[in-house]
TrEMBL record:
<keyword id="KW-0067">ATP-binding</keyword>
<keyword id="KW-0547">Nucleotide-binding</keyword>
<dbReference type="InterPro" id="IPR027417">
    <property type="entry name" value="P-loop_NTPase"/>
</dbReference>
<dbReference type="InterPro" id="IPR017871">
    <property type="entry name" value="ABC_transporter-like_CS"/>
</dbReference>
<dbReference type="InterPro" id="IPR003593">
    <property type="entry name" value="AAA+_ATPase"/>
</dbReference>
<dbReference type="Pfam" id="PF00005">
    <property type="entry name" value="ABC_tran"/>
</dbReference>
<dbReference type="GO" id="GO:0005886">
    <property type="term" value="C:plasma membrane"/>
</dbReference>
<keyword id="KW-1003">Cell membrane</keyword>
<protein>
    <submittedName>
        <fullName>Peptide/nickel transport system ATP-binding protein</fullName>
    </submittedName>
</protein>
<keyword id="KW-0472">Membrane</keyword>
<dbReference type="GO" id="GO:0016887">
    <property type="term" value="F:ATP hydrolysis activity"/>
</dbReference>
<dbReference type="InterPro" id="IPR050388">
    <property type="entry name" value="ABC_Ni/Peptide_Import"/>
</dbReference>
<comment type="similarity">
    <text>Belongs to the ABC transporter superfamily.</text>
</comment>
<keyword id="KW-0813">Transport</keyword>
<dbReference type="GO" id="GO:0005524">
    <property type="term" value="F:ATP binding"/>
</dbReference>
<dbReference type="InterPro" id="IPR003439">
    <property type="entry name" value="ABC_transporter-like_ATP-bd"/>
</dbReference>
<feature type="domain" description="ABC transporter">
    <location>
        <begin position="2"/>
        <end position="241"/>
    </location>
</feature>
Length: 245
């Protein structure tokens, strides 16, 4: 679902992300971990062609589309409908004066998807939300509910890939577990490909199949999550693990 080779992202000639290989298959979860400024989010945005004013080289394939050569129209067709981006604070992207149900219906119609009440209700219930939430405004829901609503929208659109950028960093531990549980279940039941960006290695260990560790824009270690997190080979990965509470 995601195939990346020799990806390099530069701003003003400065290399900010260098990813030799990144593959995410159907039903698989790959996590990119590292401290702030390591290039994680830049890599994620590059996969959808959302890095404005950046110089990008290499190969990026998402849902069979060559992101670097695709037309703006082709990119719009895969964004949301086939590959959904779930941000750290989804409430900021929700119109404050519009009910969630109206927001979801507009997005579904924009992509030519089923915008019926039944389809929307089914999507929110799949992420363990009551359908009544569709009548609420963004300020009337919690951060965890906003994250699950963003995931529900991706489900309703029929997304095959979810790219999640620090989806639990602003949530308390209990709500974090709920969101991760939803993502894990959807991956298993729907065969979603999940690319997760996080600085939380404890969280990553509960869901990821493979891990890429980034530092200063470069991938310093990668491999199966169990191996990387249990016996890291790079000093930076060991530092991240030692910093866990």
């Amino acid at each position: 679902m995601i195939e990346v080779r020799d990806l390099q992202v530069r701003y003003g000639g400065r290399l900010v992300a260098d990813v030799p290989v990144l593959d995410v298959g159907a039903g698989e979860c790959v996590a990119i971990v590292g401290e702030s400024g390591s290039g994680k989010s830049t890599t994620l945005l590059a996969l959808l062609g959302l890095t404005e004013n950046a110089e990008i080289s290499g190969q990026i394939g998402v849902c069979g589309v060559d992101v670097l050569t695709a037309s703006p129209r082709a990119l719009r067709e895969i964004r949301g409908a086939r590959a959904a981006l779930v941000m750290q604070s989804p409430q900021a992207a929700l119109g404050p004066a519009t009910r969630l149900g109206v927001l979801m219906r507009r997005a579904l119609k924009l992509h030519g998807r089923d915008a019926s009440g039944a389809n929307m209700a089914k999507a929110v219930e799949e992420v363990l939300l009551d359908r009544e939430i569709l009548r609420r405004y963004p300020h009337e829901i919690s951060g965890g509910q906003a994250q699950r609503f963003a995931i529900a929208l991706a489900i309703a659109l029929g997304a095959e890939v979810i790219l999640a950028d620090e989806p639990t960093s602003a949530l308390d531990v209990t709500v974090q577990a709920e969101v991760v549980g939803v993502l894990r279940r959807l991956r298993e039941e729907r065969g979603l490909a999940l690319l997760l960006v996080s600085h939380d290695l404890a969280l990553v260990s509960t869901i990821a199949d493979r891990v890429l560790v980034m530092k200063d824009g470069a991938v310093v270690e990668s491999g199966p999550a169990a191996g990387v997190l249990a016996e890291p080979s790079h000093p930076y990965t060991r530092e991240l693990l030692e910093a866990l509470p």
